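Course assignment 3, question 2. Fill in each field.
Student: A.L.
Task: Predict the tertiary structure for the chain below.
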Amino acid sequence: MNGPALHERPARPSPDHRPPRRHVVPHQPPASWRIALPHSVAAVPVARALVRTALAELEHPADCDTAELLTAELVANAVEHTSGSAPIELVVELLPGGCQVEVHDPDPAPPGDLTRPGAAEPDPWQEHGRGLLLIRTLSSSCGHRPTPTGKAVWFRLPAVPAQRRPAE
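Answer field:
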């Protein structure tokens, strides 16, 4: 995906002085999907299912639950905050080091507080207003970039190390 990361967290060193164990899909080339979704709330469960299936089928080490949640937020925001009936496009890239999800929509205006905290905390009594906060907080990086037909809003998740299993 193109564009610089506008929000990135530095890597933390391992507390024990050994390098962390990494689960990398051996010898699998990067995989990507691009799908047009309807400009309606029906796009949200379809997008979640695509991300879940892609990660599961390739046994990708990114956190599936977080990827689904953040994808749903991006798609829901695109549906809610853009007008018209032009399709929304979902792009999913699975790489050995993690995954990146992009949502393309026809509105060139950048998303509100994606790359920097808002001036005020979200109202705890309101149903809306936490999506971009979730994306900023749970992704390793996120951002947006202009496209010829509007904008792309994206997030990245790192590969997670395989869980240690107790000896039997």
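Instructor remarks: The radius of gyration is 17 Å. The chain is about 25% helix and 25% strand.
Grade: pending
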